[in-house]
Amino acid sequence: MKDFWKITGATLVGLFIFMFVRLFFFFSVLGSLLSSMDSSSPSTVLKAHSVYRLDFDGQIKERIGGDDDYYSALGQAMGKSEMSVYGLNDILENIRMAKVNDKIDGIYLHGGQLQAGFATCQEIRNALLDFKESGKFIIAYGDGFTQSTYYVASVADRICMEPTGSVDWRGLSATIQFNKRVLDKLGVNIQVFKVGTYKSAVEPYILTKMSDANREQMSVLLSDVWTGITAAVSESRSLSVDKLQLLADRNMGFESEQESLKEGLIDTLVYEQQVDSIIKLCCDNQKVNFVSYSQMNGVRDKASKTKNNIAVIYAEGEISDSGTSGIVSDKLTPVIGDIAKDDNVKAVVLRVNSPGGSASASEKIWYAIKLIKEAGKPVVVSMGDYAASGGYYISCNADYIIAQPSTLTGSIGIFGLIPNFSSLLVDKVGFDFDGVKTNRNSDVEQQMTLGKMTYEQADQMQRNVERGYDLFTRRCADGRHTSQDEIKKIAEGRVWSGKRAIELGLVDSIGSINDAICKAAELAELADGDYKTVAYPKPESTLTRLMKAFDTEALIDRYAEKTLGEAYTTAKTLKQLNTKPSIEARMEHTITIR
Fold it and tell me: Which residues, 6 or more positions from 451, have their beta carbon under 8 angstroms from its beta carbon?
């Protein structure tokens, strides 16, 4: 009996210790998460001869506060390294504050592996050009430069590079992953319904190479973007466009660092430790105080007491009716409705960075924007890297549209994809399906995906897509104050650069998100300084977002994306198609421009 109680007691003590360790671990992770996810930045007191260090080594999103921040915090709490995520809104505001604050002497651009579209890079580059008007210096350094980081760094007064580095200057390319042969091997047949000669989103599922129409539009698009990049670098580096083209043809990333120096792409070959002395010289040989991104976030103007607000609505990612990521109409439309009713909101800026998505979700958001206008509040759209298809759908009703020259926009077209798995599941795997029904089309989804689609069903799908296209083009025509026939001439699913979109009347002017805010203030007749900006949607509570960070399906989705990379979008699309037939207003999201 004694042994029994000894064993029982030891077991209980062991369980207690185990539970204590588990609880300690949980609360340690929780504490780390809560501290990491605290969106408020402590106030930063700047010292004389401060230099803002802007690291270009990570991903730039429209703003900080999304799910990525929580997964990053979770990874750090679990001892895993995560890619840094920066908010474009914070970067732009930090550069503005660095310009006007007399404690800041200059900016140090520290290059790395930047993940950002060229329109985002252009926003930052233009902000840096504005910063230089203050007379303060910009020094750039990198172990090497990708084309996007070099594009931004080219504004610097001096570009330094590590002695074994290279400048990846070779021109742009667009790569599309085609999945037809893989799907054929699996026995999956994708049934396509679309309107628009240039609507290329369906091509990866039915072709093995680009169509002539898609090749044409992508060639024009890349030419527009590259022309803007070379013109900007030419002006900043005092190198002719012709010379830059020749250097690109030489593929400078494979040339020696001495060639990059000789040809004028960079100014100095130094090690990172030597850059400090260069920056110190720029600060009159005074002690330099480097200010990080997070510290600079704590340097802000005093809160304005005005009650006049300009709401900045961030719409980033693919558009869907429901879900936890991207632009979700079920979540965004109530937010827009509240803004329409808020008397303190005098104008709205809709910041769009989206390749599109669900046509029905896009229509719901379009209508919500319409209600804002009916409430007497002007709406200005600011386009980021993408505002295409559904992204343009939700933009077209604005009073004024501003884009960057390299923004991908337009893609006014509709498509529907329905996968048929009968060859895979019935012929190859050996499943059989049977059932009963009350009407001829009661099991229409099963017929389409597991049987043979009838002519009648195919005709219904095509007419449904055509109705969607008719509505889309009418929305665009009404929003842009032109005829539907005129819109259809430039629609057909074709993607345009922001620069070309102005010529076509799809966009009103070239500019930044700050230009959009100024335009919104002008339309609302608000004097400079008599308004403040308020970002929407408001962040969810810490507890809600914490629970989302621990959500099993979301975690699996997150790490599948990190593991599969660009192939993740294909897998995600197939998963969505298997859920239900859908009508999409989306451009091809697997296009990668390098």
Answer: 422
In the three-class reduction of DSSP (H, G, I as helix; E, B as strand; rest coil), residue 402 is classed as: strand
State the pLDDT at residue 474.
Answer: 95
Domain positions in the chain are 50-170+251-296, 309-417+430-593
Instruction: For residue 389, indicate whether it is catalytic.
Output: yes
| CATH topology match: 50-170+251-296 vs 309-417+430-593 | yes
Q: What is the DSSP string of 275-344?
A: HHHHHHHHTTTPPPEEE-HHHHTT--PPPP----EEEEEEEES-EESSSSSSEEHHHHHHHHHHHHH-TT
Helix (H) or strand (E) holding 159: strand 158-161
What is the DSSP secondary structure assignment for residue 490, as one 8-state letter? H
How far is the first Cα of the chain from the last one, in angstroms, to the nearest whole number?
75
Q: Are 309 and 531 in contact (CB under 8 A)?
A: yes
Residue 525 neighbours by CB under 8 Å, 6+ apart? none
Band (pLDDT 50/70/90 cuts) for residue 588 is: low
Given the residues 99, 199, 346, 499, select the one marked as catalytic: 199
The rounded distance, in Å, linking the Cα atoms of 295 and 41 is 8
**Closest listed residue to residue 36, CA positions, set 3, 10, 64:** 64
Q: How far is CA 344 from CA 271, 336, 374, in A?
A: 53, 14, 16
* Domain with residues 309-417+430-593, CATH architecture: Alpha-Beta Complex (3.90)
Alpha carbon distance 37, 71 (integer Å): 10
d(CA 558, CA 67): 10
User: 411 — alpha (psi -120 to 50), left (phi > 0) or beta?
Assistant: left
**CA 554, CA 326: separation in Å to the nearest integer?**
13
Eight-class DSSP state of 254: G
Give the integer Cα–Cα distance in Å for 52 and 110: 10
With contact defined as beta carbons under 8 Å apart, do 406 and 498 qualify? yes
Q: Are strands 104-115 and 158-161 parallel, antiparallel or unpaired?
A: unpaired
> Is residue 419 reached through a cis peptide bond, with omega within 30 degrees of 0 on the bond before it?
no
**Which of these is catalytic: 329, 389, 422, 582?**
389
Q: Is 438 exposed, middle or buried (0-12, 13-18, 19+ CB in 10 A)?
A: exposed
Quick check: 1 pLDDT over 80?
Answer: no
Three-class DSSP labels, 523-570: HCCCCCCCCEEEEECCCCCHHHHHHHHCCHHHHHHHHHHHHHCCHHHH
Q: What is the DSSP string of 225-245?
A: HHHHHHHHHHHHHT--HHHHH
Q: What pLDDT, on the 0 to 100 scale, is given for residue 514?
A: 94
* 3 state SS of 15: helix
Dihedral of the alpha carbons of 580, 582, 587, 592, in degrees to the nearest 10: 0
In this prediction, residues 480-494 reach a mean pLDDT of 93
CB 521 within 8 A of CB 347: yes
Q: What percent of the chain has pLDDT over 90?
A: 54
pLDDT per residue as tens digits for the range 544-577: 555 555 555 555 555 555 555 555 555 555 555 5
Query: Distance between CA atoms of 186 and 183, rounded to whole angstroms?
Result: 5
Judge contact between 568 and 560, C-beta under 8 A: yes
**372 vs 176: which has the higher pLDDT:** 372
How far, in Å, CA of 262 to CA of 542, rounded?
53
Fold of 50-170+251-296: 2-enoyl-CoA Hydratase; Chain A, domain 1 (3.90.226)
